[in-house]
Design goal:
heterodimer, A: mainly beta, 6-stranded mixed beta sheet, B: mainly beta, 4-stranded antiparallel beta sheet, about 0% helix, about 50% strand
Chain lengths: ~110, ~120
């Protein structure tokens, strides 16, 4: 069974600092990995999707890397802003199912 | 972009009653829809996968007689929580995948979620 772990569970940084969020998964036979953002009491917004054959994806201030063989992904958010405060979830797709981590809750202090 | 809606966004009911949650794909046909449950501070857990016109496939540990899923059309799936109890209180999220060719079949589009509180 695929297990997805996110570390740290929570993170608080001053505005302008770069964020590093980690995700690990136990079974490397994945199709892709996605990073999502979830605001309190809301649904999910897809941020980045990395296919298993790719090493990284970038969108604006966000960059995600994938090392499938070691079962790790890292989400980097540059120059954090208070609006980046949210919970970030990573999920891996395998056997047509998404397995999610518990998320990292980020607070960016103004 | 692809939009998925859920209704209601929030529901409070008494123990023993049944609650129906709707999930709609607004601008695409969803051959497959997924239902997830999320408890506070925990990850989303897949409950079941439904394909239009066929019975849903439930994950291990999910009671199919308690969580009834119907995917009667390519744009609508419903989850009915039967005889709800306080332990069923949770955040329920659906997602939908469009058919291959319209966009990546790897992509699931998520609804905004439904907060269920059972008193």
């Amino acid at each position: 069974k695929q297990e997805v772990t996110q570390i740290p569970a929570a993170l608080s940084v001053p505005e302008g600092e770069n964020l590093v969020l980690n995700c690990s998964f136990t079974d490397s036979a994945i199709y892709n990995l996605q990073w999502f953002r979830q605001d309190p009491g809301k649904g999910l917004t897809s941020l980045l999707l990395i296919q298993s054959s790719q090493r990284e994806q970038t969108s604006g201030r966000l960059n995600a890397s994938l090392d499938k063989s070691s079962g790790r992904s890292t989400l980097y958010i540059a120059a954090s802003q208070p609006g980046d405060s949210a919970t970030y979830l990573c999920a891996v797709l395998a056997d047509y199912k998404l397995s999610f981590g518990a998320g990292t809750t980020v607070t960016v202090r103004a | 972009g692809a939009v998925v809606s859920q209704h209601p966004s929030r529901v409070i009911c008494k123990s023993g009653t049944s609650v129906k949650i709707e999930c709609r794909s607004l601008d695409f046909q969803a051959t497959t829809m997924f239902w997830y449950r999320q408890f506070p501070k925990q990850s989303l857990m897949l409950m079941a996968t439904s394909n239009e016109g066929s019975k849903a496939t439930y994950e291990q540990g999910v009671e199919k007689d308690k969580f009834l899923i119907n995917h009667a059309s390519l744009t609508l799936s419903t989850l009915t929580v039967t005889s709800a109890h306080p332990e069923d209180s949770s955040f329920y999220i659906c997602s939908a995948s469009p058919p291959s060719g319209l966009t990546s079949t790897d992509t699931q589009y998520f609804g905004p979620g439904t907060r269920l509180t059972v008193l």
